[in-house]
Write a structure and sequence with these properties.
It holds the Pfam family DUF1289. By secondary structure, the protein is mainly α. The protein contains five helices and two strands, in the order ααβααβα. Strands 1-2 form a two-stranded antiparallel ribbon. The longest helix has 35 residues. The radius of gyration is 17 Å and the shape is globular.
Length: 156
């Protein structure tokens, strides 16, 4: 069920309310969480591109997308919402977010598991979430440092 508009990445449990500068759920930066409803559709898409890019950096270590069209078809069959303009990695994340506890085989979804550890799919999803948060936090620190350097140059 593709979205018609640019949806919020929010997953309903925002860790920024507890002091995180990067949400552990959606991985948006605190200012993006606060100002989301003020952003234009183009600005929201830029944020989504960054979030999709995080997944594309982490997930290929653990999975191979053998048939993205089948994955999308299965999301439709399960009536899971997704963005048409998202990468197949984002579609896989949606599947894992909604069904990781029940899944034992990803082949029917057009996905091959590369990870050979004894972790369950749910445990693997949690490991990836931790890695994604670490990566998003590093990007936040890098982007904040760039902004502070730019501001200092403007003041000089």
């Amino acid at each position: 069920m593709p979205f018609e508009t640019v949806p919020t990445p929010c997953v309903g449990i925002c860790s920024t309310t507890y002091g995180d500068t990067v949400c552990r759920g959606c991985r948006r930066y605190l200012p993006e969480v606060i100002d989301w409803n003020r952003y234009s559709a183009a600005e929201k898409r830029l944020i989504w591109l960054r979030l999709d890019g995080l997944l594309a950096q982490i997930m290929p270590r653990y999975f191979e997308l053998t048939d993205p069209a089948l994955l999308r078809q299965q999301l439709d069959h399960m009536r899971l919402s997704y963005r048409l303009d998202a990468s197949a990695w984002t579609w896989l994340q949606i599947l894992l977010k909604n069904a990781a506890r029940q899944l034992t085989d990803l082949k029917p979804f057009g996905v091959r598991r590369l990870d050979t550890s004894a972790l369950s799919i749910y445990e693997l999803k949690e490991l990836m979430n931790s890695e994604l948060h670490t990566l998003a936090s590093a990007y936040y620190e890098r982007d904040l440092l760039r902004a502070l350097q730019f501001e200092a140059q403007q003041d000089a």
